[in-house]
Amino acid sequence: MSDSTLILLAAGEATRFKRPVKKQWLRIGAEPLWLHVAQKFAKMSRFEKIILVGHADEIGHMRAISHLPLLFVEGGSNRQASLRNALSIVDTPLVMASDVARPCVNTDICDELFAAIAQADCAVPALPVTDTVYYKGKPIDRSEVLRIQTPQLSRTKKLKEALKGDKEFTDESSAIADIGGRIAFVGGDESLYKLTFKEDIKKVSCLEKPDTSKLFTGTGFDVHAFEENRRMVLGGVQIDVPYGFKAHSDGDVALHALIDALIGAAGMGDIGEHFPDTDAKWAGSDSAKLLRHIVHKIYHFGYDIIHADITIMAQKPKLSPYKEPIRRRIAKILSLPLERVNVKATTTERLGFVGREEGVAVQASATLGFFDWSAR
User: How does pLDDT run across 119-146, given as a tens digit for each residue?
Assistant: First the structure.
């Protein structure tokens, strides 16, 4: 049995990355970056368990698509809080922590860290500084300066002790050094470059391009009955009739079907899991706002929306004047050109509940592909 645990930190907001996709969800081939990195570490067979720290809004999907036996922990408000959350379930003598934003895993450096920890409380990879360094307007001896990287290997008990207080640290080594712990340095490598800004992609040598040949299709279907004296909103457009839809939200049956189609294509469950009608906060919600939330999440997860097609089945109201405004509204929300959104309206020839003018049914389909970060 191994005496070490691995913590992979992937809960950040990636606000400095300035891409539609979050950096931890960049697709490497077909896998998100966090899973690609976890798989590289898992191949070392050094760890009793691997803990993946994810963002609260993403951890459910992470768990659903992982093919590795990972333990998932919800991240905190910053890196240190996320690390502390993960440490709460670590019971091995040693713990290695790494940021998935450093995707080039170096097995040799990891071996050196395990060798160096025998004489230290924390072992870290470090690089010398080759440029002249000024501090507070004065040059300092650059031979005394090191650039610290991850992964870092620590004695679990010492790291937990170091993180007990409120003082914030940028990494494990500085926390342990703060309480007098011994730090061992091993030779780092430029390949352990950290993705922070979008330009950094060009500096990371180990990233395989996304598999843009893969396409994913989802379908959605929804129905709502009519209710008198309610405002009707369909496809994000107000329809000029004296009745609306009976529903927990605004009842926009077209956008609900489209949301389910998008969620289905991304393998993210169904609309009820994201916006349960048992939750009062969604009562009367603007469905366009719900759609924007899902679109934002889909782009964050490394997808591009390629196409959407919607069929509205309604005996009433007459929808011919509204088809184009609906198409334009949906295209804007999806950030798609008009030619990649289609809206159709039909009756059911007086058959069924739609034919009896009791409500409206909508079927939608959506096609996704992987965001090609290598070409942008």
Answer: 999 999 999 999 999 999 999 999 999 9
Alpha-helical runs (H) found in 306-358: 323-334, 352-355
Q: Tokens 């909103």 appear where?
A: 233
Q: Comparing C-alpha atoms, which of 81, 133, 83, 92 is closest to residue 4?
A: 92
Q: Round to whole Å and give the CA distance between 188 and 186.
A: 6
Task: Report the run of H or E that residue 223 belongs to, with start and end.
Answer: strand 215-228
Q: What angle do CA 105, 69, 42 make, to 5 degrees?
A: 20
Q: Where are the alpha helices (DSSP H) in 13-56?
A: 33-42
| Residue 282: strand, helix, or coil | helix
Contact in structure between 363 and 260 (CB atoms under 8 Å): no
Element (H, E) at 94: strand 94-99
Which of 238, 231, 234 lies closest to 223, judged by CA?
234
Alpha-carbon gap, residue 154 to 156, rounded angstroms: 6
| Angle of helix 253-265 versus helix 323-334 axis, rounded to 10 | 40
pTM above 0.85, yes or no: yes
Location of structure tokens 């507070």: 136
Contact 103, 71 (CB under 8 A): no
- Decide: residue 12, CB within 10 A, 0-12 exposed, 13-18 middle, 19+ buried: buried
Band (250; pLDDT cuts 50, 70, 90): confident
> Structure tokens of 56?
């609260």
Question: Is residue 305 within 8 Å of 368, Cβ to Cβ?
Answer: yes
DSSP-derived 3-state class of residue 186: strand
Residue-range domains of the chain with CATH: 4-203 (3.90.550.10), 215-375 (3.30.1330.50)
**Which are the contacts of 240, defined by CB distance < 8 A and separation ≥ 6?**
none
Smallest CA-to-CA distance from 201 within 301, 277, 101 is with 101
